[in-house]
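Dig into what follows:

_____
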Amino acid sequence: MSSAEPPLLELATDRGVLRYREAGDGPPLLLLHGSGPGVTGWRNFSGNVPAFAEHFRTIVLELPGFGVSDPAGDQHPMASAQTAVQDFVDGLGLERLSLIGNSMGGFVATQFALDRPEQVEKLVTVGGAGVSIFSPGPGEGIIRLSAFVEDPTRERLIEWLHSMVYDKFLVTEEMIEQRWAQATDPETLASSRLMYGREALAAMAAAPRDAAVVPAWARLGQVQAPTLITWGRDDRVSPVDMALLPLRMLPRGEIHVFPNCGHWVMIEQKAAFESVVLGFLTRDVNNAT
């Protein structure tokens, strides 16, 4: 499989244009990115696409509000992502698919599996499931992210990027410049503030104490698809104890924790991640009970 960047394709929906890349043939595999400053689906998953495309029609969706697909307006990025995934799957006519979601994308993919269980073959999350049990929240990476969106400086961006990884040498000047250019785009920055601004962070901290709201993790027992939870042991954004509730609650769930690895498992432990995920995705579904 060639490692060349596939062209950026467009799908028009009633809520705006969604953009995506795809490579390979076979059963559809949808990759959903996270939510940090300057993120794109291609930056999250470009290194993994060649391996997955040998087995699957691998599709990298750019979620609204992050500078590639159309803006999400004043809608919360998590809510717009959930509707975007449904619009995208319907627009491409995907009757059944597997999903891989990184961070925010993991929560969005899980919600899709809850809303449309008949369409999900298998589900993989990357540091994007559950809730902290022992660790204080929000995590260090989220706090640094909030500091950046409230007052975007290059130094704050670098501090946040360093919190994402175990090995700081992965944060190159090229990465910093790419992220800075996209993260400071006015519409993208406004979207980030909806999710990680000071008020959003306060709401995030208060959410576990709101008895009127059914938390997403409380529905994990309803996920029917075989599910693989992956995590970096040294994740400073979403601490690894978040995986404990999914491990207990998912009826067909399993977990793999990667050592010497932060939040970007698919980048920092690329070869091991691809091996584990491909083993899971290509396994006979009837044995994944």
Residues 9-136+211-287 form a domain with the Rossmann fold fold (CATH 3.40.50.1820).
